[in-house]
Every structure is written in C-alpha cells, then in structure tokens.
Amino acid sequence: MRSTPFTFDISLPGGVPTVYDGTDVLIRIVRPLSAMRGQYADQEAYEALLAQGDTILYEVYEMRRPQVADEYIEIADGYIEIADEYIEVADAHVGLGELLHGTSIVHPGKVGDEYFMTKGHFHSVLDTAEVYYVLQGRGMMVMETPEEEWAVKELRPGRVLYVPPRWAHRSVNTGQGDLVFLFVYPAHAGHDYGTIETRGFRKLVVARDGQPHIVDNPRWCAQE
Amino acid sequence: MRSTPFTFDISLPGGVPTVYDGTDVLIRIVRPLSAMRGQYADQEAYEALLAQGDTILYEVYEMRRPQVADEYIEIADGYIEIADEYIEVADAHVGLGELLHGTSIVHPGKVGDEYFMTKGHFHSVLDTAEVYYVLQGRGMMVMETPEEEWAVKELRPGRVLYVPPRWAHRSVNTGQGDLVFLFVYPAHAGHDYGTIETRGFRKLVVARDGQPHIVDNPRWCAQE
Q: Which residue of A has its CA nearest to B157?
C-alpha cells in the first residue's frame, strides 16, 4: 500500500481540492435533495422543491490513499464518485491511526424555512472526534449525544470547531453563498447515518425574519 | 470530564488562536534557539547567533480539553505554558479517538544558511498520521521513515499536507514572514523527539542564492 506523504490545494472561493500530487484520487460524494427525504420538517415544501428539480444540497470531497480507493470506485471527470454502499467498505481498508480528511461544500438555500444542511451522522465508533476548520461562508453545526445533550455552534471563516467523541453532527448553511470547511476525523470512525435518519436531531435551524433561529424539532424521537 | 463541543478562532495574519469559547485553556509551547542545540549543521553559526540572544524560533498553540490540562499547567497572560516534561503526562489523559489540534508559528530566520525550523519528531505510536493546513507563509515539510524513505513537500497557503503513519516530520520556514499552519493528529500519537535529536533528518533545507535547496545532512546517522 502506498504510504508516502501527499499534498493538495484548496482553491478559494470554491473549496474544491486539487487532486493529490502525483495521483488522481479524490472522492466526490454528492447529496441531492432526493437523498434527504424525511429529513426536513416541512415535507410539503420538500416535495414542492423536489418537483422543480433534484438540486444538489452539498458535496463532499474526501481524500483517500489511492490503494484504498481504487478497488471500489471509478474515475470520472478528473475526480472519483463513490456510491454510498462502498464508503463503509473503503473505510474498513484504512488503518487505525490514519486520518480521513477533505472539504465539504454546503450550498445555500432553504426547504420551507429550514436551511440546506447535511444528512448528519454519528460515527459508528462513537468514541471518535472530528475537527472542522471553516474556510468560507456562514453556518451552524447542530450536534447531540445519545444522551440528553445538544449543542449548536456558529461556523464562520477562520473558526475551528472540535466535535468531541459521541457527538452526532450536521452542518447547516445559514448564509447567502456556499459554506465551505475542511474536516479531519479518525479513519476508523465510520458513519452511522441510520440513527439520525430514523429519529432526526433534537434541534432545527430555521429562518425567522431572515435570521437563523434554533428551534425544537417537533418530530424528534428519543433514542431507545 | 467535560466533553462538550468547542470552537476557537484563528486570527490572520498572525495565527494565534483565541481561547476556546467559555474556557481559558490554550497551551503555548515556545521553542527558543537554546532548545535546538545540536540540531543545526553549522554549530559555529548557532553559537554566534545564540550569543546575541535566545530568540524564539517557533511557537505551538495546542488545544486541550480543559480537564486534561488543568492538573499540569498554570495560566499566565491569558494562555497556558506547559513544560516539556508534562506534555507526555497530559497526552496520556486524552482518550483514543480524540484529536489534538492547534496552530504552529515558525518565525523567519536562518542559522548559517539553514532556515529556522521545528525540532521535528516521530510519533511515539508510529502508526499515526497527521494533517496540516497552511494558513500563512512559505516553507517545507521534511519527512522520513525509520526505513530508507524520505520526502520534502512545499508548504504554501491553502495547501493540505497528509503525513501518513510512520513519517517523522519537521517544518521549515523558507519565507520572509511567519509560517503558520493548523495541525490535527490522533491524541494517542505521542511525541518521540529523541530519535531525531540523536540522529537528525537525512535532508536539510538551506538557502543557496536566496532560494531553498534540499541537501544531504552530512551528520545524519542511520538508525540501528
């Protein structure tokens, strides 16, 4: 397995990384509106927006060491698209002690009065943290633990956010342009999307008089 | 142990982080010239420069969760200074799956024709990686494994560098101003400074006609 140091550059504004030097492995994960069914509170607004087109809500560019990725993905247009079902398989090939990293770009917009956001997830290995560094835009990180805790932190350029172990996290774009950030997390963390898909987050971020407000999620379900 | 999400802001130019929101824990590690005896090839130039004053070569601001730090360090001037001998003790109190992170500021200058640089180290747990994001300045990361490999990568603003497991790393400021970067590494990695102090890096970065050049280290000692 190749294990020499790599670099890549993040162009701003924008946030799309160059490919690693000397390689062509850059994974792009795209989440269209259709991948978020059931995640927005206003389901009528969701269906109405979807009827207008399956707009892209956010993109994730993740760096993988080439040999980890090559077996599962195909190169297209200079980057690589990976299907959801292969992410966990690819994760399993990254060693303990490695760090997965890349950029996320959350586009601006709203479904009803709820801002465009990421799916949000717990790490499969709950006791793993994540570090974010905001490069561009404005937003909120909505977080909660399997216990009674929740937190919402503002995201703005130059800010580092530390998500400790056990905290599910979802980024929300509350600005006019793209929200772009760098992320780093332990390679063995994995992604548990199912818990959030089933019960949602305790808190939503919605627009009230043009400003973001944190409100209770009326459809939130307590974890067993 | 406190385990709620934290944020801090990195002001640029400069690179000194604000303290965590709601806390006052920001560790500052300062490396003066006197801490680098034997690390520069031109020992005569080193002693001559030191005779003029014990100038600070670089500073590291590292974020620690408050309860990890409070037992070992004292607050002074709004940040916390930690003595070398307590770093490993503090490290041992951070859990597997957490990420240590912060900024490094390497000041510009030369000892003879060799640029100001960090001590450089292996991680005590060799199989742990590190991610860097360059915020300001110009430089090089000099890296090598316990085996025959070495690599030098250019550092410039907007660039991410992935240091895979097993690679010792030293940052070198080849520019006119401060070199500032964000770093993230697994909390259980630890620091092995001794190996590099004893045998040095295979490669040095020196100024030739005002430009950085990579040259062999004439005093490098092969590892047993």
A: A9
